[in-house]
Write a structure and sequence with these properties.
- This protein has about 600 residues and is mainly alpha-helical.
- It is built from 23 helices and 8 strands.
- It has a 5-stranded mixed sheet with strand order 2-1-3-8-4. Strands 5-6-7 form a 3-stranded mixed sheet.
- The longest helix has 28 residues.
- The N and C termini lie far apart (about 80 Å).
- The mean pLDDT is about 90.
């Protein structure tokens, strides 16, 4: 049976193994959450690009041309995730032919995303064990395993989980570099850093922790050398060597950044302009009026990590930063450098998508675990109350996060709200009806519906360009369509959650939404779908109407009033709109003439 010592030695790897298996299970649960309709636009774009790639076997020289069929011609994200999906799905197609097609390759992609995230947990464990010991490392792994943002993004094949894996691997290898610089270690760091940048160029700030690692390593080796000049030259030269390795790997994994530079620079410049707010695009107007740093932190704590873990992570990171910088704690400065560099840069952006914070969330889990384990150790010397308080705090963070994670999987246990809404439309909306839908959003009923959902072509569909600038012509078209249509279907709050908050820019359209939701245009809400995480019987509800100051239609007000809910305020659109949006279906219940409609939209009945 083994000695108690043997059993204690076995306990730790068993717990780690169970953590990794459990993490993989919750990330693969509900893999077909959207029934393969590809409702996530970034995932859909990556899959479409990957599906059209062809390696020029017959003309290998074509590989080195911008006209190569292996050129993604899409660089908003790095090429590595696209090539990875194309290669792996092609290999999977040898046993499962459908895996190589657009309609099924999403399964391969989502498995890759889940595996990458579980790999990140393993690397975080190694990082934590190196810095703080195995129990902190195990705690960090457990906390990351139940972090909701990681679970959610593992259900898409975008680039975020893969990027986070490479970021953590770079930090871990940088710690080895800090032990003692060598060409081998420098090249290893450069290879992984290059892979990270070939996944997303936002990995470029890794240069700071790499420089810190070189500084620490050279300082340890410089017994006979003195002077900051020597150290600065050594750090600069080391970073240069590592950077050359990273660039070489970047160009190998993303070759058309060099072979098709105009497309590469155009896409990267646009993404940078979009993120900074230099370019005005509809899908970032939700961030008008949001505060740098405070908004992403609020979203991180409330939704991405959950309140107990989010607060513990931020508090632990603050203490770790004070401890690391104030006491010059050597290699502990390496991950802190990434946390500070990436956090300061990303938190300042105009576009504050929740997923942007993923590369630092594992470190927040690490610092939360470090703080909790430290609290438990200090409580041993205290009284009974101190021990109870310490264990209570640990149970609150880990237990609360686990409940939130399991509650979030409820989103994937039922058909997607757009699937349910389409089923209702097919069953209840008469063929031949005139339906108004919105541009910049997915159309309901689902265009490519199948298995009883194929009713899109039974209706006359008109797309309202509500994000276009308000003009008399736009207002006249809106009045004419509303006076003639039978239904207005809003797939999500992508537009009605933003436009009413911009009355100076959209006076007519903002008024239209207020009148529609107040049911004053002859339309009444007849159906809606909602899905929320559920914890111990309580739904964790995000604000759908309040921030845009829209009145609640009667059916919606009655339905939500009967819900046992914890209302947590605004959630970032990117957090809920892909996997649990709230579609609303309005039906015209009384005739309203175009003149009456015009007066209502002109505000003459205010």
């Amino acid at each position: 049976m083994g000695t108690p010592t043997d059993r204690r030695r076995l306990l730790h790897p068993v717990l780690l193994g169970l953590t990794l298996v459990g993490a993989l299970g919750v990330r693969l649960y509900g893999l077909h959450w959207d029934d393969g309709y590809l409702f996530h636009p970034d995932e859909r774009q990556i899959l479409m690009v990957a599906s059209r790639l062809r390696f020029p076997w017959q003309e290998p020289a074509l590989l080195f041309s911008a006209e190569s069929p292996w050129n993604p011609q899409f660089f908003s994200y790095g090429s590595l995730p696209i090539y990875l999906l194309r290669v792996v799905s092609s290999l999977a197609a040898l046993r499962w032919p459908a895996a190589g097609t657009l309609s099924a390759s999403y399964v391969v992609g989502r498995v890759l995303s889940a595996l990458a995230d579980v790999g990140s947990i393993g690397v975080l464990y190694l990082l934590g064990r190196r810095l703080y010991g195995r129990w902190v490392a195990l705690g960090a792994a457990a906390l990351m395993a139940v972090t909701v943002l990681h679970i959610q993004l593992s259900h898409f094949y975008a680039v975020d989980t893969l990027l986070t894996l490479f970021v953590l691997a770079t930090l871990y290898l940088a710690l080895r570099l800090a032990d003692g610089p060598s060409l081998e270690r420098a090249m290893a760091v450069g290879v992984v850093w290059g892979a990270a940048m070939a996944t997303k160029v936002s990995a470029a700030p890794l240069i700071l922790p790499i420089a810190v690692a070189w500084f620490l390593g050279l300082r340890r080796r410089g017994e006979g050398a003195t002077g900051w000049g020597w150290l600065a030259r050594g750090v600069g030269g080391g970073v240069l060597w590592t950077g050359w390795a990273a660039l070489l790997v970047f160009f190998v994994l993303e070759p058309y950044a060099v072979l098709d530079p105009w497309t590469f620079l155009t896409d990267v410049t646009f993404e940078a302009g979009m993120a900074s707010g230099a370019y005005d695009v509809p899908y970032t107007r939700q961030y008008v009026g949001t505060l740098p740093y405070l908004y992403p932190l609020q979203q991180l704590v409330t939704w991405s990590m959950g309140i107990p873990l989010g607060l513990a992570g931020l508090l632990g990171a603050g203490v770790a930063l004070w401890d690391g910088v104030g006491r010059s704690r050597g290699e502990r400065l390496v991950p802190l450098a990434w946390l500070v560099a990436y956090g300061l840069l990303t938190g300042s952006l105009y576009a504050k998508f929740a997923r942007y914070m993923l590369p630092v969330v594992p470190l927040l889990c690490l610092y939360a675990a470090w703080g909790l384990v430290g609290l438990l150790r200090r409580a041993r010397a205290g009284g009974r109350r101190a021990r109870w308080a310490a264990w209570g705090a640990a149970a609150l963070v880990l237990g609360g996060s686990t409940l939130y994670a399991l509650g979030y999987t409820r989103v994937y246990s039922r058909p997607h709200p757009w699937v349910r809404a389409t089923a209702w439309i097919c069953d209840h909306v008469p063929p031949g009806s005139h339906i108004l839908v919105e541009h910049w959003d997915d159309t309901l009923p689902i265009i490519g519906g199948r298995e009883g959902l194929f009713c899109y072509f039974d209706y006359r569909i008109t797309r309202l360009p509500v994000y276009d600038p308000d003009t008399p012509e736009k207002a006249a078209d809106l009045v004419a369509n509303l006076a003639e249509a039978d239904y207005v279907i809003l797939s999500s709050s992508r537009l009605h959650g933003v436009i009413p908050r911009l009355p100076e820019r959209y006076p007519d359209t903002a008024r239209y939404y207020r009148r529609l939701f107040a049911e004053e245009l002859g339309y009444e809400l007849v159906h809606y779908e909602a899905a929320y995480p559920r914890v111990l019987g309580w739904d964790l509800v995000h604000d759908v109407l309040g921030r845009a100051a829209l009145p609640a239609p009667r059916l919606y007000a009655e339905g939500e009033a009967g819900r046992q809910a914890v209302r947590l305020g605004r959630a970032d659109e990117s957090f809920f709109v892909y996997d649990h949006p709230t579609p609303l279906i309005f039906r015209r219940t009384e005739p309203v003439s175009a003149e009456e409609m015009r007066r209502g939209l002109d505000g003459q009945t205010d």
